[in-house]
């Protein structure tokens, strides 16, 4: 089934909403064949009508529990269709009922606030007028500890014997491996490990340590600040997290065709919401997406924290005037200026954690990375100028 056929099966005014959003220039059909298939599947479910029946909301709530969008990490036609189908139900619910399905409420509120959706919805008013939620008085969820699980004793007659060295040394092994078996397998295991270690070295030597056409810094090398993808972002929407008092959920435009990214920041107690709205900032855009109390965050806001601690002040690092969403931010220095960041930082490599202690603001309030070994200073900048903290000097950046 094609995208057009799937949309044609939806009844108006939801179909009209999807078509109106598509005309606004967004890439709503999906960015890959897999995503396109998922978008069509969700639209088909919406068209069938059962997905958003009031009796089925708990099931939908579970599906949306750890999702910001229905498909991948960007807005698609599936989200527009689902928002349209949910609108008549959500808009009629009292506060107690939308607390019950908090993931649906969070998802609906997020989608309705996106510029592409809002613009399309406004053309079809009043069918899709904005719904206001009073989340400030939401009851706190009770978290009950799970009862301790009883450990089952392993049956020696049924349990297989693991003869690897790792199993032999493990304190939780069900039964110890025979000494002669462990000893005989150890050389083979060591040989395999040695081959695995030597193979990448030989391949790297064959092509000079870098594959042709790859301009990214080698992830296996020493952590470098240029591995971090910093970009100018613009906050187009910000709300308090529905399930966490100290978190904001922002929609930040990084100049991407897929639209704004959802970003969760723990800044509620340090920066008033009015000082977050419509602000330009520096975003770390290649961290691995992380779930923050049920909302997936796809970037990190770079902030300056006073040298006297958080309570003494936290500020958004500001890009130069006239910056545009998506502008590249880089580190001064021949080794860094023309380097390409990694597509995504590997959390196990702790690249950001290794580099971050060198992030600071100079006496001029300019953001910079100071090399801990050479003490050389590399200011953080765009082609238009250097990024600044509004007031803080000697601040830590994270």
From TrEMBL:
Keywords: RNA-binding, tRNA-binding. InterPro entries: Arc1-like_N, Glutathione-S-Trfase_C_sf, NA-bd_OB-fold, tRNA-bd_dom, Tyrosine-tRNA_ligase_regulator. SUPFAM superfamilies: GST C-terminal domain-like, Nucleic acid-binding proteins. Residues 131-226 are annotated as: Disordered. Gene3D superfamilies: 1.20.1050.10, Nucleic acid-binding proteins (2.40.50.140). The keyword RNA-binding applies. Residues 156-190 have a biased composition (Low complexity). Residues 195-214 have a biased composition (Basic and acidic residues). PROSITE patterns: TRBD (PS50886). Residues 224-330 form the TRNA-binding domain. PANTHER family: AMINOACYL TRNA SYNTHASE COMPLEX-INTERACTING MULTIFUNCTIONAL PROTEIN 1, TRNA-AMINOACYLATION COFACTOR ARC1 FAMILY MEMBER. This is tRNA-binding domain-containing protein. It comes from Hohenbuehelia grisea.
């Amino acid at each position: 089934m094609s995208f057009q056929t799937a949309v044609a099966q939806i009844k108006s005014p939801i179909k009209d909403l999807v078509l109106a959003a598509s005309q606004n220039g967004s890439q709503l059909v999906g960015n890959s064949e897999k995503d396109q298939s998922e978008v069509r599947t969700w639209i088909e479910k919406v068209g069938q009508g059962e997905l958003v029946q009031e009796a089925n909301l708990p099931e939908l709530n579970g599906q949306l529990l750890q999702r910001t969008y229905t498909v991948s990490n960007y807005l698609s036609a599936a989200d527009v269709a689902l928002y349209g189908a949910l609108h008549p139900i959500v808009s009629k619910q009292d506060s107690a009922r939308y607390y019950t399905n908090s993931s649906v409420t969070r998802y609906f509120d997020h989608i309705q606030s996106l510029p592409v959706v809002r613009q399309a919805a406004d053309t079809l008013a009043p069918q899709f007028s904005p719904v206001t939620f009073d989340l400030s008085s939401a009851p706190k969820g009770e978290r009950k500890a799970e009862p301790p699980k009883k450990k089952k004793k392993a049956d020696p007659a049924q349990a297989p014997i693991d003869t690897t060295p790792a199993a032999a040394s493990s304190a939780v092994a069900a039964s110890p491996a025979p000494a002669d078996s462990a000893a005989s397998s150890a050389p083979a295991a060591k040989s395999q490990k040695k081959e695995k270690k030597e193979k990448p070295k030989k391949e790297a030597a064959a092509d000079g340590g870098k594959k042709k056409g790859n301009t990214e810094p080698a992830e296996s090398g020493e952590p470098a600040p240029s591995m971090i993808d910093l970009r100018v972002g613009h906050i187009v929407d910000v709300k308090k997290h529905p399930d966490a008092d100290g978190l904001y959920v922002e929609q930040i435009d990084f100049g991407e065709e897929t639209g704004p990214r959802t970003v969760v920041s723990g800044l509620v107690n340090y920066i008033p919401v009015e000082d977050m709205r419509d602000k330009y900032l520096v975003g770390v855009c290649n961290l691995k997406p992380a779930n923050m109390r049920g909302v997936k965050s796809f970037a990190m806001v770079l902030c300056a924290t006073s040298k006297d601690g958080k309570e003494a002040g936290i500020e958004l690092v500001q890009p130069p005037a006239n910056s545009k969403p998506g502008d590249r931010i880089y580190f001064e220095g021949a080794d860094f200026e023309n380097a390409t960041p990694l597509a995504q930082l590997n959390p196990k490599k702790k690249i950001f954690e290794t580099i971050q202690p060198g992030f600071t603001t100079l006496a001029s309030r300019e953001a910079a990375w100071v090399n801990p070994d050479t003490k050389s200073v590399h200011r953080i900048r765009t082609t238009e100028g250097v990024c600044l903290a509004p007031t803080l000097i000697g601040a830590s950046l994270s």
